[in-house]
Amino acid sequence: MTVLFYLLKIIMIVRPQQHWIRLIFVWHGSVLSKIFSRLLLNFLLSIAVIIMLPWYTMLGIKFTLAPFSILGVAIAIFLGFRNNACYARYVEARHLWGQLMIASRSILREVKTTLPDERGIEDFVRLQIAFAHCLRMTLRRQPQTQVLGNYLDQGALQKVVASHSPANRILLLMGEWLAIRRRSGKLSDILFHSLNNRLNDMSSVLAGCERIANTPVPFAYTLILHRTVYLFCIMLPFALVVDLHYMTPFISVLISYTFIALDALAEELEDPFGTENNDLPLDAICNA
Q1: What is the largest distance, in Å, between two alpha-carbon atoms of the chain?
Q2: Per the CB 3.0–4.6 Å rule, which of 31, 76, 86, 95 could disulfide with 269?
Q3: Over residues 187-209, mean pLDDT
Q4: Dihedral pair phi/psi, residue 287, rounded to 5°
């Protein structure tokens, strides 16, 4: 049990509160591993600028920090807007999957208590599990046949895989399962209506997740910020070298880390259903 809990903590990126010194050196879950090569290039560029400083001075070329200060503030503001927009997508996605967990547990509880002696109830349970995994793999654009084959019989699997919207097809199969019990008199109209509302809740979650996955942050907005951040970081050593000289590589990397890390983090949060460190732990949620 302890091992299982530990594995879930790793998958879901749930960490205990750490001392501030240890937090500085955390690697897993940080975007530093993703942007390290870019920071290294900035460091090497800064060294090259220091080496070229005599020619730089001889030609009378001199950048001042004032324009970079103004540009840095502007970039920081726009990065803040973009990160807020991407984080809002992340929060909404987590809220939707929370709703799915509530609806799934509720409908299974109601079915099991209403039809405790029903032989086909295991089929309904497997459809419920298959829906969660199908939605996860659809959002991640992963192949579904092998995983869904663990929960669906061959006939249902063929219908789901052949459908334009596999997750919605599973909801239809669940609705048909309930409708058969209603027609046979095993479910009253009131109970059927209640259970059908749970399916409607799951359908709303499906639509909400598809909306987030298929409507990214406008590309032009992302592009202009991305270009501006990297141009700023490339030009920064030229502005710092006259005043900081040998400290230029360290200060330039520190400033560049702030801007490039925010840009990379927004890129991760924009698609909260992916498999990167800071994306939603959908595997753990589906197995909860």
Answers
A1: 94
A2: 86
A3: 95
A4: -95, 5
d(CA 96, CA 93): 5
**pLDDT tens for residues 9-42?**
434 455 666 666 776 767 677 888 899 999 999 9
Instruction: Indicate the residue type of 30.
Output: S
Report d(CA 288, CA 112) in Å as an integer.
Answer: 18
Mean pLDDT of 248-269: 95
**How far apart are the C-alpha atoms of 257 and 132, rounded to whole Å?**
37
- Is this model's pTM higher than 0.70 or not? yes
> Residue 21 has what pLDDT?
73
Cβ partners under 8 Å of residue 134, min gap 6: 144, 148, 160, 166, 167, 170
> Quick one: which of 183, 178, 131, 179 has its CA closest to 152?
131
Report CA dihedral (207, 288, 147, 180) to the nearest 10 degrees. Answer: -60
DSSP letter (8 states) at residue 226: H
> What are the structural domains, with CATH classification, of the chain?
35-87+219-279 (no CATH), 92-214 (1.20.1440)
Q: Residues 211-217: what's their mean pLDDT?
A: 94
Q: Give the tokens for residue 158.
A: 């063929």
Asked whether 121 and 115 are in contact (CB, 8 A), the reply is yes
Name 222's Cβ contacts closer than 8 Å, sequence gap at least 6.
82, 216, 266, 267, 270
Q: How many CB atoms are located within 10 Å of the residue 47 CB?
A: 14
